Amino acid sequence: MANDQINSKERLKHILSEDAIFTGFSHESRQLILRYASFRRFLSDQLILDHDQIIKDVYILLNGTLQVGWLQTDGQLKINNYIASHSVFNLVAFLQQKPLNYDYFAIGSVEISVIPGQLFLQQLRQQPEAMWHVIQLLSQRMYTLFEQSRYVHTANLIQRIAYHLNRLAIQYGDCQHNTCLIGIRITQQEFAELFGVSRQTLYKNLQFFLEQNILEWSYSQIRILDMAQLRKICDLD
């Protein structure tokens, strides 16, 4: 347990020094955050944060992958996204002091660091550079959301499939030359839910990618065989 705690602190220390959210914080502030941070571990499929909760602390993903969506009354999770980037994942809801929009579940073993919310806000308010970095980051995320919304409303289904496959490759891919192995296992049902189509509709349209030798999809494992062609399909022009 002691070694695990050391490893957790080292991971958090690296994130505090490299992540865009914290780059504007002074060294002293990062040391203070590191001192008061706590650490939690979650098992596969365990609920980490529940939608409709108002979370008063800052949650950082240190290790593992999160599955994000809505847990329905029948017990099924409707997938909206996956998170594997080691950063704060509840920043908007925390700053707004509003309930979370989604349920967050662990995929495999997951490690989280929790920073006291009042400490984070205190350091943020005292450092204009830190505040500016956070504003820039939130602006970038908003711009990306607008771009995604535009794409969804203008692209055809083949392009949307290519777009989401490319996003998975960027976020979770182990890419070598022109091929890419997606680092998380996703069923076709889960993938279809990412952009609101039925599994049957997805399966029908996936045949194009399979026949063109752009994609292999076997036992929830996705391998992109031709990244250049996939990205060409994403292009709206």
UniProtKB/TrEMBL annotation:
Signal sequence extent: none
InterPro entries, per database record: cNMP-bd_dom (IPR000595), cNMP-bd_dom_sf (IPR018490), Env_Response_Regulators (IPR050397), HTH_CRP (IPR012318), RmlC-like_jellyroll (IPR014710), WH-like_DNA-bd_sf (IPR036388), WH_DNA-bd_sf (IPR036390)
Domain Cyclic nucleotide-binding: 21-141
Stated name of the protein: Crp/Fnr family transcriptional regulator
GO CC entries: cytosol
SUPFAM superfamilies found in the cross-reference section: cAMP-binding domain-like (SSF51206), Winged helix' DNA-binding domain (SSF46785)
Residues of the HTH crp-type domain: 155-228
Keywords from the UniProt entry: DNA-binding, Transcription, Transcription regulation
GO molecular function (one): DNA-binding transcription factor activity
A Pfam cross-reference name: cNMP_binding
Organism: Acinetobacter populi
